[in-house]
Design goal:
With 418 residues, this protein is α+β, with helices and mostly antiparallel strands. The protein contains 16 helices and ten strands. The chain has a four-stranded antiparallel sheet with strand order 3-8-10-9. Strands 5-6-4-7 form a four-stranded antiparallel sheet. It has a two-stranded antiparallel sheet with strand order 1-2. β1 and β2 form a beta hairpin. The relative contact order is 0.12. The chain binds NADPH dihydro-nicotinamide-adenine-dinucleotide phosphate (NDP). NADPH dihydro-nicotinamide-adenine-dinucleotide phosphate binds next to α7 and α8. Pathway: Metabolic intermediate metabolism; (R)-mevalonate degradation; (S)-3-hydroxy-3-methylglutaryl-CoA from (R)-mevalonate: step 1/1.
């Protein structure tokens, strides 16, 4: 774009000047950008064409009792009511004994895609015969992982089309998410396969469909704990089960059911410096693994209890990527007092289930809007320019007038300032 040539080579100061010279931002706006910077060297080293830091609010969710341990859970989100709902769901489960979780294994899968072969069965046989040598090549490409107790574990072949196959390599990535480490190992392995087996490699890259890194969280609540107003605990429990069925039957509902779950999951993934795009893509692929997109959690009822279960891939790390670089991530790990990547998976899955419980409980009892109204009005009032000190007054007037839109919020702000 004219005027922005070699933007990536400019210093931060020069980038700001360019934005001003090109008439994109005023001096006042540039000042805002400059003041928002929290660690210029950090940002500049993490991404390209860096100009400022974009901040999101962080809060703590309470009442998490997971596998007998209590946790404070930091959450980063811009959406009102996510943290309140998370704490609400967690408190209901805490009173009933807490979440129980399971992480059977932590393997990441990478793919080496081979094209233009003549005989799939023959190539598969050759690759399987070479398995030990191939795993050795992979391990030598990132040997420090082996010294930590991790490394390549197995491989498998899958035919994708007449001329395409995937060699899947499973790697124990220990405490990291492992994407970069795995990609290094895959490239070395791909070279070996290409040379040794005269195969044509199209590409090699990790898969975010982390089927060998699944986490489950479960909870069981006495029906008596669900009672609300005129509705008995049993009635609410039955409605939650029906809502859960709808998310298994109908992709329109499943998408929203899972969005609610990801409200909590993404917020913890972000707070812990993990790659939320990786978690999102893995979760949604897992949700459609049987050919239809379904809810990631399910609820059932017996005579006395409502039981919930969530299962999803959670390839998160406690080290690596931006985790060791961003100071706030270290602080958040300390707030959580999380000791391993497996433990982090357990917390995140529990947050997803808690968020889902809170959402279904509200949806099937009072409806979502009543509880959200004040929070939404607050967002409208802030968007209308209300100062923190004016918020209560603005909200009270808006509720009284029963007008919930930006124009009304602006009017009320102007009115109370008159
Ligand atoms: P890194 O490249 O940072 O590798 C992990 C680092 O952690 C290594 O340097 C390793 O040290 C170190 N480490 C220290 N202690 C341990 C331990 N106990 N277990 C394991 N490693 C340890 O990050 P990842 O490989 O985890 O990759 C994650 C990053 O990759 C994320 O930023 C993600 O966004 C990005 N990414 C994601 C992709 C995707 O999802 N499709 C694709 C490409 C990148 P040593 O070197 O000594 O082994």
């Amino acid at each position: 774009m004219p005027g922005f040539e070699k933007f990536y080579e400019k210093t931060l100061q020069q980038r700001w000047e360019t934005l001003q010279q090109q008439g994109v931002l005023s001096e006042e706006q540039l000042c805002y950008l400059k003041n928002k910077i929290y660690a210029p060297d950090l940002g500049n080293s993490m991404i390209e064409n860096y100009i400022t830091d974009y901040t999101l609010p962080e809060g703590i969710s309470f009442h998490y009792l997971i596998d007998g341990r209590n946790y404070l859970v930091p959450m980063v989100t811009e959406e009102p009511s996510v943290i309140a709902a998370s704490s609400h769901g967690a408190r209901m489960v805490q009173k009933a004994g807490g979440f129980k979780t399971k992480v059977e294994q932590r393997l990441m899968i990478g793919q080496i895609v081979i094209e233009d072969f003549q005989d799939y069965a023959d190539l598969k046989r050759q690759i399987e015969k070479e398995q030990t040598a191939i795993l050795k090549v992979a391990n030598e490409a990132h040997y420090s992982l082996v010294t930590r107790g991790g490394g390549a574990r197995w491989l498998r072949c899958r035919q994708l089309a007449d001329d395409l196959m995937s060699v899947d390599l499973a790697v124990d990535v220990q405490e990291a998410m492992g994407a970069n480490m795995l990609n290094t190992m895959l490239e070395a392995t791909a070279d070996y396969i290409q040379t040794k087996l005269a195969s044509k490699v199209l590409m090699s890259i990790l898969s975010n469909f982390a089927t060998e890194c699944l986490t489950t969280a479960e909870c069981s609540l006495p029906l008596s704990a669900l009672t609300k107003g005129n509705l008995s605990g049993k009635e609410i429990g039955q409605k939650i089960v029906q809502a859960s069925r709808v998310a298994q039957l109908d992709p329109y509902r499943a998408a929203t059911h899972n969005k609610g779950i990801m409200n909590g999951i993404d917020a913890v993934v972000l707070a812990t410096g993990n790659d939320w795009r990786a978690i999102e893509s893995g979760a949604h692929t897992f949700a459609v693994k049987n050919g239809q997109y379904r809810g990631l959690s399910q609820w059932e009822i017996d005579d006395h209890h409502l039981k919930g279960r969530i299962e999803l891939p959670l390839p998160v790390g406690r080290v690596g990527g931006s985790i060791g670089i961003v100071p706030l991530v270290k602080i958040n790990q300390q707030i959580m007092n999380v000791r391993s990547a497996r433990e982090l998976q357990s917390i995140i899955a529990s947050v997803g289930l808690s968020q889902n419980l809170a959402a279904l409980y509200t949806l099937t009892s009072e409806g979502i809007q009543r509880g959200h109204m004040r929070l939404q009005l607050k967002s409208l009032a802030l968007a209308a320019g209300a100062k923190t000190a004016e918020l209560k007054q603005v909200l009270d007037v808006m509720i009284k007038k029963n007008e919930h839109n930006l124009a009304a919020a602006k009017e009320v702000v102007a009115e109370i300032r008159r």
